[in-house]
Amino acid sequence: MHDLVIRGGQVATSFGTVRCDIGVAGGRIATLAEHIPGGENVIDAGGLLVVPGGVDSHCHIEEPREDGGVMEESFVSASRAAFAGGTTSVVCFIPQWKGQGVWDRYQDYRARAARGMLDHAFHQIISDPTDAVMEEEVPRLVAEGVRSLKVFLTYEPLHVTDAQYIRVLETARKLGALVTVHCENFDAIRWRTQRLLEAGLIGPRYHAWSRPSVVEREATHRAIALAELVDQPIQVFHVSCAEAAEEIARAQARGLKVWGETCPQYLTLTAEHMGRPDGALFMCSPAPRGADEHARLWEVIRRGTLDVISSDHCAFSIAAKRGDDFSTIPNGIPGLAARMPLVFSEGVSKGRISVEEFVALTSTNAAKLMGLYPKKGAIQPGSDADLVLWDPARQVRITNALMQHAVDNTPFEGMDVKGWPVMTIRRGQVVMRDGQVQAEGGTGEYLPRAAYGMAQPRGITPNGFGA
Ligand code: URP
Ligand code: ZN
Ligand code: ZN
């Protein structure tokens, strides 16, 4: 009856941990029981935790660049990195560069993603919300299961104005799609960058000076206020500091459908890293803050204000990060493989969160918010058998080789972690065992997303107009 039985593990979900066996049939979880006899294949999970495969809902993989090139991380290399780190599903981005449509981009990106081994869903980036894009192409995409639109409130070629952001919110509301937002103030960063460069302050350390917390807090407040005006659910991406998280907490306390994500880099790196000779390798946006911010972020995570920890994986090689001028060095760091080990180690092993909270933060909450639950992010009959056998006692020093991504650096190089994935199972198939990834290209499945409650508006607008 079962193709696979995982025996004797401590099975941890977001709502509890229990010692039980898991029976898998046809790639799905079929049975959870104290003891499952027989089975064609049996895996001994004694002494290990068994957690749902990670869902990383913020990954930049094989994105076409504005110049016609493509990112170094392919779906095949990203799949290796993901499996090495316990992640089995990703939500990644289809960029729209200004002047482009989105429909042909989507078809191209589907074909690229289909070459990998990871199960995948998409966010559509909107940088040019023309009538044709918003009225004709985006509805087609949503019908294809692309149920989230991403906007950047900063970045020179991608950012949208407030008017354009409102248009995206309005369209998403009509279509029942989530909006995800990069919150930093474009004009404020541009002004400060210009002044820093004029003062000769140009190295990577000044990346953090160009975009202090206040520009993130302001944009977070504005993103939320405009979403409230339109009555559209949003997720604020990569929150780097408690002052931005406080804006989210205030919105949540008022009952708004606003969620917040953070990333391991904001819990482990600081602005000081960008002052090192290899400082460019730590440059991402928002910028990592002071070391005291880590404890503040853990506090807002514990309170539930930030309920998803994604990687914001955006890998560049050392060569691509070369340069003296912070304003021209690409932003982004790789983190797909390091994400779950870092969250487990910094969170569970250091006593900041429970194992159940670890599961919620790295898998279940993202699956729910992205409309993938309970197919993903759960260990229950009917869910995909995406499972990770986790050794909570294993001590590992992170190296770039362990990350298995396409680039030659990790900002987490040399960090010691306690807790490590020893086996990753995707839809019932062992795809990583003791660091060896064994999966054939082309086996990753597209995850179309149907309408779901979390992305639906509340039906409450100012004066009741347009509700
Ligand atoms: O620096 C970052 N975060 N790069 C990736 C793109 C984004 O802003 O999410
Ligand atoms: Zn961003
Ligand atoms: Zn990103």
Question: Could you explain how this protein is built, in words?
Answer:
The protein has 467 residues and is an alpha/beta fold. The protein has two domains: 4-51 and 381-393 and 418-437, Roll (Urease, subunit C, domain 1); 53-378, Metal-dependent hydrolases (TIM Barrel). The chain has 13 helices and 18 strands. It has helices spanning 75-84, 103-113, 131-143, 162-175, 186-198, 205-210, 213-230, 242-253, 265-268, 292-303, 339-349, 355-369, 400-403; strands spanning 4-13, 16-25, 28-33, 41-44, 49-52, 54-60, 87-94, 119-125, 148-152, 178-182, 234-236, 258-262, 306-309, 313-314, 387-397, 416-426, 429-433, 436-437. The strands form two sheets. Strands 1, 2, 3, 4, 5, 15, 16, 17 and 18 form a nine-stranded mixed sheet that branches. A nine-stranded parallel sheet has the order 13-12-11-10-9-8-7-6-14. Strand 1 and strand 2 (16-25) form a beta hairpin. The protein is globular, with a radius of gyration of 21 Å. The N and C termini lie far apart (51 Å). The model has no long low-confidence stretch (mean pLDDT 98). It binds N-(aminocarbonyl)-beta-alanine and zinc ion (ZN) (2 copies). One zinc ion (ZN) is lined by residues 58, 60, 312, 314.
How is the quaternary structure best described? Answer: single chain
CATH H level of the largest domain: which superfamily? Metal-dependent hydrolases
Give the averaged pLDDT, no decimals: 98
Quote the beta fraction. 15-25%
| Helix fraction bin | 25-40%
Low-confidence stretches: none
| Largest sheet geometry | 9 strands, mixed
Structural class: alpha/beta
Give the number of helices: 13
Envelope shape? globular
Number of domains: 2
